[in-house]
Amino acid sequence: MSKISDKIINTVKEKSKNLEAEMSFFDHLEELRWHLIRSALAICVFTIFAFAFYTWIYDHIIMAPSRKDFWTFRAMCQIGEWLHRDMCISSINIHLINTEMAGQFTLMIDSSLMIGLVMGIPYLLYELWRFIKPALHEKERKAASGFVFYASLLFICGVLFGYFIITPVSLNFLSSFTVSGQIQNLFSVDSYLSSVSTLTLATGLVFELPILVYILANIGILTPKFMRDTRRYAIVIIMIIAAIVTPTPDMLTMTVVAIPLLLLYELSISVASMVERRRKKRNADAEAS
């Protein structure tokens, strides 16, 4: 009889443990859901803000890289004077057309949402950090305390670099490129917005490379030695990326794009080295204790 009662008690205990684990799992899911809801609300607020001031945003932000008086083109002209080269842009042949009944309204919605997403990324990273933080140990929290700041800073720098450097140079080349003089370049508003947003956002994500390396180095997948040994291959890949992103035969432009990517790679090596030093210090402290 006692054996049966012990079995029942053990079964109840096991079920209670499983139930507690399931509840904990669902609690985490619920917590994640609220973090995502708050992030979505923040993006919606920024989207509404962009929608309310859309006329100014369209004239001074979205269409600005397609004008010859854009900051980048004026800077290129100034640099050309210093180098005694003609780098001034006289005109940019971008003629936008709308081929759909609701095309312009869709453009307004899509571009407002895109701007809201870009402005909301730092808050999304903050919510992600709040979700991950309780699962970390005290030392891990201290080591990753600047995650939101550095990830947001790198993303903003990437967006600015993509918007001010890559986007105008690419638009200038693509708008003037022709296979035949019989073909006239007429671009749809959707195509223009897609090009600007893709180049800008993609560069912002590429600039998150040091954060990705930090995570992979902490897991143990990447080491500074491996990154140093593969530097020559990384340089080739970066030059290929620069050539794709800036489809222009001008070597100077491709170099301007490649230099920040090379600097990011070197920064990532430094980040991986820092993680490795911290790991060795923790191991040494553990052995000493």
Walk across the major sheet and give the strand order.
Answer: 1-2
User: Averaged pLDDT, please?
Assistant: 80
Helix content: over 70%
Radius of gyration: 26 Å
Element pattern in H and E: HHHEHHHEHHHHH
Please indicate the percent range of residues in DSSP E strands (runs of 2 or more): under 5%
The count of β-strands is 2
Which structural class do the helices and strands define?
A: mainly alpha
- Biggest sheet descriptor: 2 strands, parallel
Number of domains: 1
In whole angstroms, the N-to-C terminal distance is: 50 Å
Shape: flat
Q: Count of DSSP helices? A: 11
Identify low-pLDDT runs.
15-23
Question: Would you kindly provide a written description of the structure presented here, covering whatever features stand out?
Answer:
By secondary structure, the protein is mostly helical. It has one domain (about 1-205). Helices cover about 80% and strands about 0% of the residues. The protein has 11 helices and 2 strands, in the order αααβαααβααααα. A two-stranded parallel sheet has the order 1-2. It is flat, with a radius of gyration of 26 Å. The two termini are about 50 Å apart. Part of the twin-arginine translocation (Tat) system that transports large folded proteins containing a characteristic twin-arginine motif in their signal peptide across membranes. Its main location: membrane. Forms a complex with TatA. One of its GO terms (biological process) is intracellular protein transmembrane transport.
In short:
It contains eleven helices and two strands; from the N terminus they run H-H-H-E-H-H-H-E-H-H-H-H-H. The chain has 289 residues and is mainly α. The chain has one domain.
